[in-house]
Amino acid sequence: MKQTAFVAILLFALTFSINAQEETPFQRGVRYFNDEEFDHAIAELTEAIRTNPNDANSFLYRGLAYQNRNQSGDINRAIEDHTVAIRLNPNDADTFYNRGLAYQNRNKSGDLNRAIEDYEAAILLNPNDARAYSNRGAAYQTRNQSGDLNRAIEDYTMAIRIDPTHKEALVNRGLAYIIRNQSGDFDRAIADLNEVIRLNPHDAHAFYSRGYAYRTRNQSGDLNRAIEDYTEAIRLNSNNADLFYNRGNCYVTRNQSGDLNRAIADYEAAIRINPNHTHARGLLEAVRNSADR
C-alpha cells in the first residue's frame, strides 16, 4: 500500500514536471501575474511577445503587470502595451478599460479626457460593465468641468443598476450628492452610504462620509448621528487625524456639558497623528480659551 502511494506521488511529480516544461511563455507569464510575481510575469510575457509580436493578449497582460508592479515609468509602459493590444484587437472591452484606468491613474494633462474616451469605448463593446461606468463617473468627477458632476452621478447610477453591490459607485455617488448639494441630495447621499455600510459594516470611510453628510444636512438629531458615525469610524481607523478633527468640531457645535473638553481631546489626538494639522491647532487654542472662562 505504501509502495502504491509512493508511485502515485512520483507519477504526479513527473506529470507536474512535464506540464511545467510544456507551458508556453505566455502561460507562464499569466501564472506569474496571477501569483503577483510581476517581474517574472513581465519577463515571460516579453519573451511571448518576442516569439509572437501579434498576440494582443501578451501585450494586454504585460500592460497589466506593469500597472500592478507600478514602478517608475511602469504606467507609461502599461499605456504603450495596451495601445498595441488595442491596435491588434480593437474589439476587446477589457483592454480599453485597462488603458482608461492607466490614463486615470497617471492623470497628466489630457489624461482624464483620454480615460473617458476609453471607458466610452469599453461601454460600447460591453454595455454591462459596471466598472467602466463607475470609473468614467470618477473621471468626470475629477475633471469637474461644467456638467461633469451630473454626468458622474448618471454613470454611478448606471453602475449601481448593473451591480447593486458596487461599493465604489455607491460611495462615490454619495459623495457626489454631497458636493452637488441640491434639494434632497443629502438624503440621497445618506441612503447610498447606508447601503455601503450594510454591505461592509467595517468601512471606516463610509462612516466618515455619512457623518459628514449628517453634520452638513443638520436636521434634528443629525449632530448626534454625525458624532456616532465619526466615533465608529475612529474605532475602525484610529490613525486618521481628520476623523478626530471633525468629531471635535461636532462637539464644539453641540456644546453640551463636557463637549468642549471632548473637543479638546479630539483636537489633541488629531495633532498627535498629524503635527501639521493647522486647523486642529487653531481650534484647539480657541476652545481651550473658551473652556477656561
Tell me, briefly, the overall form: elongated
**Helical stretch tally:** 16
Distance between the termini: 88 Å
Radius of gyration: 26 Å
Number of strands: 0
| Model regions low in confidence, pLDDT < 50 over at least 5 residues | 1-18
The mean pLDDT is: 92
Q: How does the helix and strand content classify structurally? A: mainly alpha
Beta-strand percent range: under 5%
> Percentage of helical residues?
over 70%
Report the sheet with the most strands, covering strand number, pairing sense and barrel closure: none
Which H/E pattern describes the elements?
Answer: HHHHHHHHHHHHHHHH
Q: Describe it for me?
A:
The chain is an all-alpha fold and 293 residues long. Helix content is 80%, strand content 0%. It has 16 helices and no strands. It has helices at residues 2-22, 25-34, 38-51, 56-69, 74-88, 93-106, 111-125, 130-143, 148-162, 167-180, 185-199, 204-217, 222-236, 241-254, 259-273, 278-292. Helix 3 (38-51) runs antiparallel to helix 4, helix 6 (93-106) packs antiparallel against helix 7 (111-125) and helix 11 (185-199) runs antiparallel to helix 12 (204-217). The longest helix is centred in the first third of the chain and has 21 residues, at 2-22. It is elongated, with a radius of gyration of 26 Å. The N and C termini lie far apart (88 Å). Residues 1-18 have low confidence and may be disordered.
